[in-house]
Amino acid sequence: MSFTKYEPVRFRSPEYIAVWSQQVAATSCDISKDAREAMKDMAVSGYPNEICGLLLGRIDADGWHVSEARQVTNMNIERASDRFQLDPAGYQAVDRDIRGRDVEIIGVFHSHPDCPAKPSPTDLDGAWEGFLYPIVSVCEGEVLDIRCWEPHDDTQQFHPVLLTEAVQ
Predict the structure, then answer these.
(1) Residue 1 — pLDDT band, cuts 50, 70, 90?
(2) pTM exceeds 0.85
(3) How far apart are CA 155 and CA 18, in angstroms?
(4) Does residue 154 belong to any structural domain of this protein?
(5) Is 3 a domain residue?
(6) Is 2 a domain residue?
């Protein structure tokens, strides 16, 4: 399957290109195999709409260590095919559930149906510095790519984050 086939013209526009830094983040992220497979499964089952969820794990000087991915309802019903709005009640439920565990919410993932795993200006508007933002590209019901991004308030851009698979 060709990536270029799934790159709408808007992803080549100055507004979109301005969102992505060429500078790779200084830290990396590792995502457990289970969390990675869960994100893929959720993206495929939610296709052709965007899905979203929370990443659980820990952060240290090396970066993010993701142990679990949990889906949260996408509240954006009107534009579910190309927008997501994380359900605040879902966020709170996950936060309550992990109290007392050795994990915290460290990021938000979502899918891009029939689009590349690159953030949009809308993604940047809702991003929190310090969180990890993986995007799952799912095209014609098949996962093509997962890329991770870190927002920087000072540059108003996402920086790509090196993704590795966690050792179990």
Answers:
(1) very low
(2) yes
(3) 10
(4) yes
(5) no
(6) no
Judged on CB neighbours under 10 Å (0-12, 13-18, 19+), 74 is: buried
In this structure, what token pair is assigned to residue 88?
């605040």
Helix (H, G, I), strand (E, B) or coil at 12: helix
Q: Which residues pair with residue 164 across a beta bridge?
A: 30
Helices marked H in 47-146 — which ranges? 88-97, 121-125
In a domain, 1, yes or no: no
> Which domain does 76 fall in, by range?
8-165
User: Residue 110: what residue type?
Assistant: H
Helix (H) or strand (E) holding 72: strand 63-72
CATH of the domain at 92: 3.40.140.10
Residue 28 β-bridge partners: 63, 162
Number of structural domains (the chain) is 1
Q: Which pLDDT tens digit goes with each residue over 93-136? A: 999 999 999 999 999 999 999 999 999 999 999 999 999 999 99
